[in-house]
Amino acid sequence: MEAQQSPLQSPDLEARSPWSTHAGVPFVQVGPVPAAINGTIRLPGSKSLTNRALLIAAMAKGTSRIEGILRSDDSYWCLDALARLGIKVSLHGDTAEIEGCGGSWPVPSGELYVGAAGTVARFLPAMLAAGNGTWTVTGSKRMSKRPLAPLLDVLSGLGATITYKHAGQGLPLELEARGLQGGSAVLPASASSQFMSGLLMAASYAREPLSIRMDGSTVQPGYVQLTLDMMGDFGIFPVMADQGRTLHVPTGVYQGCTLRLEPDVSTCCYFWALAALTGGCVRTPHINAFRSRQPDMEMLDILERMGCTVLRGADYVEVQGAQRLKGGFTVSMHRWSDQTLTLAALAPFADGPITLTDAAHIRHHECDRISAICSELRKLVIQVDERPDGLTVYPGQPKPALVDPHDDHRMAMSLSLLAVKAEGIRIADPGCVSKTCPDYFERLAQLGVPVQFTSEGE
Ligand SMILES: O=C(O)C1=C[C@@H](OP(=O)(O)O)[C@@H](O)[C@H](O)C1
Ligand SMILES: C=C(OP(=O)(O)O)C(=O)O
User: Fold this and answer.
1) Ligand number with the minimum distance to the CA of 409
2) Residue range 399-424, pLDDT digits in tens
3) CATH number of the CATH domain containing 171
4) Cα(231)–Cα(233) distance, rounded to whole angstroms?
5) What number is the ipTM of this complex?
């Protein structure tokens, strides 16, 4: 029998794009798996790389060809905003050809909707501010509550005029752009690395060189490195100083180029976890295990620590599961916090408790992720201790329940991992995976995981 339920949160369906899946499907029942899961899974490009590449290509001089883009809600809203700005993009499957505007947006006014995409909400305002025009920027209900003020304060200091449409310094807002002055800026980076990435991407279009100092301890600094790498691909090379805390960005215009994007390592992690949980073997091609800079590559070290075998190649990663997963350790999630939920879902099946720390900022992601995963694990009768910056999950066998992903793709994908090893777990609102992996449940099914979409009462 399912445990007693609390009411489900209603998702913000306006943020689901034409690329989303499972509209109106209330539940999905996943698992249990009858045997080890073995297979090869080819995933599309990283969300982080896709939205960086699309936006930088739009600002560049000349045409860019971006191969292997992700087609999901987050990239849809990025492309939608670019179309409204007058950028010509042609899409052929997973290849985008983009005619860059060289820094002056062809349509200098209008309304731009960023959906629930943190990458678009934090990168686009900076890139708009580097041009000339007046735009209204709106986003999903949750995105309107997520932190944005530190970036907007710096953009105002550099020349933009920002008017907030609601109380507080967030979306929706009107941004009047007159180009960015150069000079120096101090950017608080402890709530999100995306502020720094956004400002960096726009900085070379300032009138003078801009030096940006990161204030406080930067969360997930690896994403700033991804930004610097992508800027380099388009010909702009900031210089680091002060042990990486300050970046000097020269003036200059991005040059259009051709790029093939690496698959999304954050999404790979769910499939690696599937191998770990079932004692199976999952291979993900086209990841360079020695050179990939995607922060969630750190998951592989933890899977090894849990007893899995990881094969690393120049063009693949393969994870082989363990007979019994090992626990009894603490991990700092400061550098790769998107996988906090994945580890919390693996933890009940380990032989000792697992403590996840240094992730207070994920309370401001797609939902309050620490509170949400604790509440859903408790519905499954798994013992958890919640702390301000993380949680401890104790070993246990999940009981049947209906669980709520809180309109968060990573909650849904992580809850599906718990369901793989238990009877009778249903997940509400399966379509929320569309933010980064619209065909997630179909991919599980292709690998042999029982997946059934159901409606109430079935
Ligand atoms: O720059 C990026 O592409 C991202 C940065 C991180 O966000 P925060 O630094 O806001 O935590 C990460 O969680 C997100 O999924 C992607
Ligand atoms: C935090 C995430 O996304 P966003 O880019 O919206 O911040 C995420 O994908 O886990």
Assistant:
1) 2
2) 999 999 999 999 999 999 999 999 99
3) 3.65.10.10
4) 5
5) 0.99
